[in-house]
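Transposase (Sphingomonas aurea), 46 aa
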Amino acid sequence: MKTLQKFASVHANVHNHFSLERHLTDRKTYKERRSAALAEWQILAS
């Protein structure tokens, strides 16, 4: 159960970081936000 809680906690943070609600934004804004999220993720992962 502890492992599941740890996974769920990490997954929730990562999912929230990349979940940009594509259906609510136009393509340009979505691509800009996606690029910014990916750049931030790469900084955090390195």
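The chain is about 80% helix and 0% strand. The helical segments are 2-18, 27-45. ok done for today
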